[in-house]
Amino acid sequence: MISVKLDNVGLAYRLYEKLTLTAPDRRLGGLGGKIGRSGGKQVVQALEDVSFELKAGDRLGLVGPNGAGKTTLLKVLYGIYQPSAGTVSIEGKVDALFNINIGFRPEATGRRNIVLRGLISGWTEAEIQEKMPEIIAFSELGDFIDVPFKTYSQGMAARLAFSAATALDPEILLMDEWIGAGDAQFQEKAKRRMDELAEKAGIIVLATHNESLLESVCTKRMTLKNGKVESFITKPTKKVGTRAKT
Ligand SMILES: Nc1ncnc2c1ncn2[C@@H]1O[C@H](COP(=O)(O)OP(=O)(O)OP(=O)(O)O)[C@@H](O)[C@H]1O
Does ipTM surpass 0.90 in this model? Predict the structure, then answer.
């Protein structure tokens, strides 16, 4: 059973620089987590008391101002960060597209990176090899698939990341502003694949400032502010897979 459940999750980043704030615990603006002290150390409280539950078929849009904690939450869901408080329970294979360079080895070729990424996400070597031709074709990288990843342009890296992450039918797909890096033709193609993915009963968590993408993909919307959940809305009449008018 595919599911995501967070109970009172908190995450504090340690600040190693010595800050000379006039009032260390005072909020200075609407952006970012709260700067304070925890266990005698200076920290940014990027997430605080975050609780929500998702089940198969849910597509959650994460919104909120810069520094609200969206990327941090994606990293917690992907297992890059352990929460400093609360619990995270995830059932299902997770793949992520929130920093196209995450999980890629610079020295390895595109092809090898597809394998490594698939293995990390819980797929078998045989499953990955079966999908390999489709992944390469979708990326349109041609001969560059056998060239080291470190030589790729940003858009080429985005093509590899998107093709690999979506071809393996992730049960849970975490995404950030992935679409911006590819060229217009690839973005259009990527949007179509997103629609197909949205039709399948997985879970998608998409952090974005792009309202039309959010409208087209998501059935739920969570607003974060200063690391806290400000609202969690289920859209009542969402037509799944509707393409955005941009
Ligand atoms: N490595 C880090 N060390 C210290 N603080 C960090 C670190 N990464 C993020 N933060 C802080 O955590 C808070 C949340 O950042 P996060 O990147 O999760 O925000 P976001 O909602 O994704 O923002 P944006 O919309 O700008 O991408 C911010 O206050 C940021 O300064």
Answer: yes
